[in-house]
Specification:
Elements (H helix, E strand, L loop, with lengths): L1 H25 L23 H12 L2 E6 L2 E7 L1 H10 L6 E2 L3 H7 L9 H17 L5 H19 L9 H16 L9 H17 L2 H8 L10 H25 L8 H11 L10 H32 L1 H14 L15 H14 L8 E2 L4 E3 L2 E3 L4 E5 L1 H4 L42 H18 E5 L12 E2 L3 E2 L5 E5 L1
Parallel strand pairs: 2-7
Antiparallel strand pairs: 1-2, 3-4, 4-7, 5-6, 8-11, 9-10
Length: about 500
């Protein structure tokens, strides 16, 4: 047994040395902590909070350094200047999608979020075109969000001001907005299939943010072991069945001259390119793209709102000022609209501060360089994974004084006007910036204001005793469980 262990260690050293030499043969990676054979730097990284570990390493190695997740080198970008220089100034080169094994196992490189190269460009361009056709950024989608927000108000009234967990109800709005774009219909909040679909997305986001998945992504061979990655795989299989069922319904009623929703647009394009063997418009790409849109468009907005309400419970003086602004600008007899936002600087600042403070995706999804690139004094080989530490931007203490404090003043000038910041990278930046950013911004503003227009938020404990510490801070930041009462006003 001892001999076997020695052989494994020697073999691992040879593999690591080979990888090391290969990286230096093609380029000179930035310096970083010395990796151990096979496991790399994983012992120096806190899998419960990768971003915190990166900040500690940045103090020793600067804004650009290399860490090894297992045997895979990853170049880390820390701080606004380094991230801007890569994602914005050299956006095309840094527009590749880096390795994320647990999701790659699911999507197989299809869809829009985890694809690369020409496939990514075609599917993203097509998806943005269809989203615009479906009203993205226009009054039509705003009307849809307002309608859904009013459905939320009715559902919250049915809680009769009793303690409730807001997770599911807050997720209904963005999920139904996406459903109307993809399926042309919304679901009743009591629909069992809808409830199950929501449950899967919630479970997936929480699971992919857990320490186990950070280990899985570093060591994909762990898939042979029992673990929470199997929950994600099981959920995806069930979600895929649901999506395929909807696609089949659309195929049976398709009118190529009158597309109703995203699925119809995609099926029409598939038909037009059915003789093109190189076409990216395939059933695999359709299913993966729908899954991407639901995953990115539902749970992220829902979690942001859930965390946002917890912060407002913790800071009742802030929610009172938002409600005062709503009463002054909108009143109680009409719905809040996006035109109101320019006259509601404090509310706008609160929405931005919620996103900054919760730091929803601390390191975003990994990027990759699409060609060999000289970056600062280093040569980074094509295909190298790039990790962007968004926390270091959102918590920059020069741009946001006292960043550990939840303070809407971070987005207000001395006169109380809303103040934009280039450091607000809650949706990442550059070519891979969230395609649904405009929709998410609209949803967050309209949902929050609609809730506060109709309800007072009542915590079950003294505000000073509310703990806002996340339960996970991996891929995503997951708020602790809590309940509250929605008191009609």
């Amino acid at each position: 047994m001892d001999l076997f262990i020695i052989l494994v260690i020697c073999l691992s050293c040879l593999i690591l040395l080979s990888l090391w030499n290969r990286s230096y043969a093609k380029g000179k990676l930035p310096p970083g902590p010395t990796p151990l054979p096979v496991i790399g730097n994983i012992l120096q990284l806190n899998t419960k909070n990768i971003s915190k570990s990166i900040s500690m390493l940045a103090k020793d190695y600067g804004p650009v350094f290399t860490v090894y997740f297992g045997m895979k080198p990853t170049v880390v970008l820390h701080g606004y200047e380094a991230i801007k220089e890569a994602l914005i100034d050299q956006g095309e080169v840094f527009s590749g999608r880096g390795s994320f094994p647990v999701i790659e196992k699911i999507t197989q490189g299809f869809g829009v979020i985890f694809s690369n190269g020409e496939r990514w460009k075609q599917i993203r361009r097509f998806s943005l075109m269809v989203l615009r056709n479906m009203g993205m950024g226009k009054k039509t989608i705003e009307d849809r969000i307002q309608e859904e927000a009013l459905c939320l108000v009715e559902a919250l009234k049915k809680t009769n001001a009793s303690p409730c967990d807001p997770t599911f109800l807050l997720g209904c709005v963005p999920c139904n907005v996406i459903s109307s774009i993809i399926f042309q219909n919304r679901f009743d909040y009591r629909d069992q299939k809808f409830l199950t679909l929501m449950k899967y997305f919630n479970e997936n986001f929480e699971t992919v943010s857990s320490p186990w998945i950070q280990l899985y992504n570093a060591f994909p061979f762990l898939r042979v072991l029992p673990g929470s990655h199997n929950v994600i795989f099981k959920n995806f299989a069930l979600q895929r069945s649901f999506i395929l069922e909807k696609v089949k319904e659309h195929q049976e009623s398709l009118d190529i001259n009158n597309p109703r929703d995203f699925i119809d647009y995609f099926l029409i394009r598939m038909e037009k390119e059915k003789h093109n063997k190189e076409s990216e418009f395939t059933m695999d790409n359709l299913v993966a793209t729908i899954w991407d849109m639901f995953s990115a468009g539902t749970e992220t907005t829902s979690t942001t709102m859930r965390y946002g309400l917890l912060l407002l419970l913790k800071h009742p003086e802030i929610s009172a000022k938002v409600r005062e602004e709503i009463d002054h600008v909108v009143g109680k007899n009409r719905s809040v609209c996006m035109q109101d936002r320019s006259r509601m600087p404090y509310t706008d600042a609160v929405v931005h501060e919620i996103q900054r403070y919760i730091d929803l995706t601390p390191t975003s999804l990994p990027h990759a360089v699409t060609q060999d690139i000289r970056f600062r004094e280093y040569l980074i080989p094509k295909g190298t994974t790039i990790l962007t530490d968004l926390t270091s931007v959102l918590y920059d203490d020069k741009e946001f004084p006292n960043p550990e404090k939840f303070d809407p003043g971070h987005f207000l000038d001395e006169s109380g006007n809303f103040k934009k910041s280039d450091y607000f990278m809650a949706f990442s930046a550059g070519k891979r910036i969230c395609a649904g950013e405009g929709l998410a911004r609209m949803e967050l503003f309209l949902i929050l204001t609609t809730i506060l227009q109709n309800f007072t938020l009542k915590p079950l404990v003294d505000p000073k005793d509310i703990d806002t510490t996340p339960v996970h801070k991996g891929f995503g930041t997951i708020p602790p469980f809590y309940e509250l009462c929605f008191i009609p006003v």
